[in-house]
Amino acid sequence: MSCIVIYCRAGFENDAAAEITHHASNLGVGGYVKTKPNSALVAYHCYSHDEAEYLIKKIPFKDMIFARQWFIGTQVAKMPIDDRVGSICEVAKSFPLCGELRVETCDTNEGKELSKLCKKISNPLAKALEGQETLLRQQVKNRPTLHVLFIASDTVYVGYSFSFNNSPLYMGIPRLRYPKDAPSRSTLKLDEAFMMFVPEDEREERVASGMKAVDLGACPGGWTYQLVRRGMFVQAIDNGPMDQALMDSGQVKHYREDGFKFRPERRNISWLVCDMVEKPSRVTELMIDWAVNGFAKELIFNLKLPMKKRFDTVYENLQRIRDELHEYGVKYNLQAKHLYHDREEVTVHLQVLRVPQNVFS
Ligand SMILES: C[S@@+](CC[C@H](N)C(=O)[O-])C[C@H]1O[C@@H](n2cnc3c(N)ncnc32)[C@H](O)[C@@H]1O
């Protein structure tokens, strides 16, 4: 068992492959990728089980931008249709004792067709795995998670991930409800970003009612909607029209200004969010300026992806942020993710922890 199985959005297999190759080579581990276009799946083959396990323990999962989920596993093909449970159990005998079973598919149309089978097989499989002491009867959070990923009715990848370094979500996908009164579907991106980037036990304090926020490129107001919903007061910057119901909330001030020139009058902004469609290097430069000058405590922004070299573009821009913040002595946390609701963009979260006073005084 020497393969790292990675789930991603269909069409982003090369980016997920480049990413795992990058991190593995940084840790001095070699391997090769097997993937197919639009399969939403990448398999990174290492030369030994120990090396593969080392990688999924050592590479922080939160650093994997294009991966929704991963596990260490192996492929079981051509299973007899009348005994798929037996075939899977046989391979799983060598696994550590797991605390949860997830029977999953890839996020593709072919994958959707297999979801009925996943549901049907889950119970008998769980029982058989419990019987051979590969799976605990009660779900336990701090044990490894056992994954069975169906890629055809007779073929699975089967393996496990570590609960301290994986996505806690089934298929790595959040289930968010689209609010009917939201002005645009992209509202779900910011909802997901808060969920992804701010730990649940810190959300009440960090994403709180009464806070002040700025939304650059706000129209028609999908992101502002999420800020207003959380009780914040928002300065919405855009030349376009804002949703009237949001304006009627009394929590939004609309400024028809250039988002690249706008700066707040006071350094009292808790959240800056930015969804302007612009070159990633230009947005990066703007975000560095906000961070270094202490204009906002936390920033969430999108980097639109180019057609080619998407992985390189994202990593170069993140590196530039790290380099410049380091140069100015700013203390920060930086994360990025190709969210489920993102398409041709990734979402970045920058938490500014400390800015030396002499930078802006
Ligand atoms: C993808 S839309 C934002 C959607 C918004 N986040 C929502 O959820 O409804 C991008 C917006 O950025 C605005 N925009 C682009 N360049 C801008 C600039 N330089 N200054 C202000 N707004 C800009 C556009 O007018 C457009 O409304």
TrEMBL record:
Origin: domain of life: Bacteria
GO biological process assignments: methylation
Catalytic reaction(s) noted: cytidine(2498) in 23S rRNA + S-adenosyl-L-methionine = 2'-O-methylcytidine(2498) in 23S rRNA + S-adenosyl-L-homocysteine + H(+)
Domain called Ribosomal RNA large subunit methyltransferase M THUMP-like: residue spans: 83-162
Keyword terms, alphabetized: Cytoplasm, Methyltransferase, rRNA processing, S-adenosyl-L-methionine, Transferase
Subcellular location: Cytoplasm
Binding positions (S-adenosyl-L-methionine): S186, C219, P220, G221, G222, D238, D258, D275
Active site: K304
RlmM ferredoxin-like domain mapped to chain residues: 1-71
MF term (GO), any: methyltransferase activity
Record note on quaternary structure: Monomer.
PANTHER family tied to this protein: RIBOSOMAL RNA LARGE SUBUNIT METHYLTRANSFERASE M, RIBOSOMAL RNA METHYLTRANSFERASE FTSJ DOMAIN-CONTAINING PROTEIN
Record-stated family: Belongs to the class I-like SAM-binding methyltransferase superfamily. RNA methyltransferase RlmE family. RlmM subfamily.
Free-text function comment from the UniProt entry: Catalyzes the 2'-O-methylation at nucleotide C2498 in 23S rRNA.
Name this polypeptide is given: Ribosomal RNA large subunit methyltransferase M
